[in-house]
């Protein structure tokens, strides 16, 4: 090709406009008129003519990314709306038990995935997993949908099977009594994917009527989600699996090719997805040693698309024999400068503000007391769209009042106590004394874990003695 031809080709190539970079999952904004909805031609399940399905990728405040799907047929008028989780399957399953007592509890928003089992023990109601599509609804909406399903073909059933129809009518009356709150009841969501959620109307305060427990999945539940490991591969397929491993992203190193000292002095990089917009980005990882504590792995991620910056800390060791609870009094500027290592299993609590943050909310991080407080505040201000967009003035005023109190804590106008509770014992708070003994404003309490805490950490199923015996 001649140089003139090359020059003419290169002049036609325009530089990429950096402003066109947009997060894959964006917040729903009333001012955003150019919503990135994808339209797909699909068949109508009623008349089997062609209709249009619209897909919108967005985020739910205080939850995670979802895909909204809407179908409408212009011929027969059939409409169908669904929601599917777009987040990765969580490390643990989740079990949420809500004690429904008031009308506000009935109006709580509920997000449930395809793998959610719904139970109401008081009326012996159970909706098995994968029998209904995931949806965004309310507690009352779950009951209404159940009633509609039971009423379907009820007239025909009364003619052909009168006894069964009478039993169903009796059960519907019991469900109607739940909607009228003639008695309190318990709604249980058990989701092995960990992607279900029930709104806390008192947030950021602790939800006293709702209890959330994370649990380790069994092998059968992992297989149901499509998760397999090497131990699940049949012996006949081991040779074939070894061949496939040559194409894996992560490959084992030869013995002696990478020493422990090399790992300490090297910053490793690997490709990942942004936790906010799910765009491709890189994470830097380094193994370091915290004095008077233990080795930890520090990871930092910067997204070029949405500008999100995160840092995360994971313990380099195992779970300690006992849990640990730190109680820090925040009264002076010196108290805000303490180094804090918060692990993934550590929860936070400020009793004076009636504020409680679960272990998964802020993740693991190495920062200061002030950094922890700012992270809690920023999460409420930046991700609190459910409050800012709400038409409930009482809810918005409660958040603003709480933020004013939080600002008084950060500006040291109000003295409070910050409690870090880590059942795994992998968190750390710096002492202001030179001998590393707790100072007057720091209490360190080590305690024996309860059965439920061991269950959440997966310790009850670990066999440490005679484990070679089947």
Automatic annotation (TrEMBL):
<dbReference type="Pfam" id="PF03367">
    <property type="entry name" value="Zn_ribbon_ZPR1"/>
</dbReference>
<feature type="domain" description="Zinc finger ZPR1-type">
    <location>
        <begin position="42"/>
        <end position="200"/>
    </location>
</feature>
<dbReference type="GO" id="GO:0008270">
    <property type="term" value="F:zinc ion binding"/>
</dbReference>
<keyword id="KW-0479">Metal-binding</keyword>
<dbReference type="Pfam" id="PF22794">
    <property type="entry name" value="jr-ZPR1"/>
</dbReference>
<dbReference type="InterPro" id="IPR004457">
    <property type="entry name" value="Znf_ZPR1"/>
</dbReference>
<keyword id="KW-0862">Zinc</keyword>
<dbReference type="InterPro" id="IPR042451">
    <property type="entry name" value="ZPR1_A/B_dom"/>
</dbReference>
<feature type="domain" description="Zinc finger ZPR1-type">
    <location>
        <begin position="272"/>
        <end position="431"/>
    </location>
</feature>
<comment type="similarity">
    <text>Belongs to the ZPR1 family.</text>
</comment>
<dbReference type="InterPro" id="IPR040141">
    <property type="entry name" value="ZPR1"/>
</dbReference>
<dbReference type="InterPro" id="IPR056180">
    <property type="entry name" value="ZPR1_jr_dom"/>
</dbReference>
<keyword id="KW-0677">Repeat</keyword>
<keyword id="KW-0863">Zinc-finger</keyword>
<dbReference type="GO" id="GO:0005634">
    <property type="term" value="C:nucleus"/>
</dbReference>
<protein>
    <recommendedName>
        <fullName>Zinc finger protein ZPR1</fullName>
    </recommendedName>
</protein>
<dbReference type="GO" id="GO:0048731">
    <property type="term" value="P:system development"/>
</dbReference>
<dbReference type="InterPro" id="IPR042452">
    <property type="entry name" value="ZPR1_Znf1/2"/>
</dbReference>
């Amino acid at each position: 090709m001649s140089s003139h031809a090359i020059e003419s080709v290169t002049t036609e190539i325009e530089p990429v406009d950096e402003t066109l970079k947009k997060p894959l999952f964006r917040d729903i904004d009333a001012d955003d008129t150019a919503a990135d909805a994808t339209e797909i031609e699909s068949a109508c399940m009623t008349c089997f003519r062609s209709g249009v399905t619209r897909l919108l990728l967005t985020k739910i405040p205080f939850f995670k990314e979802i895909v909204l799907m809407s179908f409408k047929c212009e011929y027969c008028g059939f409409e169908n709306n669904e929601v599917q989780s777009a987040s990765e399957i969580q490390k643990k399953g989740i079990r949420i038990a809500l004690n429904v007592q008031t009308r506000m509890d009935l109006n709580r928003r509920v997000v449930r995935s395809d793998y959610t089992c719904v139970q109401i023990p008081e009326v012996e109601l159970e909706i098995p997993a994968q029998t209904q599509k995931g949806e965004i609804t309310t507690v009352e909406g779950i009951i209404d949908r159940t009633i509609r399903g039971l009423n379907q073909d009820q007239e025909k059933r009364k003619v052909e099977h009168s006894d069964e129809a009478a039993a169903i009518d009796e059960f519907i009356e019991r469900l109607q009594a739940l909607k009228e709150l003639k008695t309190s009841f318990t709604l249980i969501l058990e989701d092995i994917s960990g992607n279900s959620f029930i709104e806390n109307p008192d947030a950021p305060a602790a939800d006293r009527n709702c209890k959330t427990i994370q649990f380790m999945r069994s092998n059968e539940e992992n297989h149901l989600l499509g998760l397999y490991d090497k131990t699940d591969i049949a012996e006949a397929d081991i040779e074939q699996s070894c061949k496939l491993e040559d194409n894996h992203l992560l490959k084992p190193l030869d013995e002696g090719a990478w020493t422990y000292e090399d790992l300490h002095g090297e910053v490793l990089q690997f490709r990942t997805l942004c936790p906010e917009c799910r765009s491709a980005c890189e994470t830097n990882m380094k193994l370091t040693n915290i004095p008077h504590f233990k080795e930890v792995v520090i990871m930092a991620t910067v997204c070029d698309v949405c500008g999100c910056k995160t840092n995360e800390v994971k313990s380099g060791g195992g779970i300690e024999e006992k849990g640990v609870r730190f109680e820090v009094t925040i009264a002076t500027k010196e108290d805000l400068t303490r180094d804090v290592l918060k692990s993934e299993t550590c929860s936070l609590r400020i009793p004076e503000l009636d504020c409680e943050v679960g272990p998964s909310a802020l993740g693991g991080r190495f920062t200061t007391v002030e950094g922890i407080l700012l992270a809690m505040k920023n999460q409420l201000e930046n991700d609190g769209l459910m409050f800012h967009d709400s038409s409930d003035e009482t809810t918005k005023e409660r958040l603003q009042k709480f933020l004013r109190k939080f600002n008084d804590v950060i500006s040291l106008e109000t003295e409070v106590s910050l409690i870090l509770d880590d059942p795994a014992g992998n968190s750390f708070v710096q002492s202001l004394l030179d001998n590393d003994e707790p100072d007057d404003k720091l209490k360190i309490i080590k305690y024996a874990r309860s059965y439920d805490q061991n269950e959440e950490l997966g310790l009850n199923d670990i066999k440490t003695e005679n484990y070679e015996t089947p």
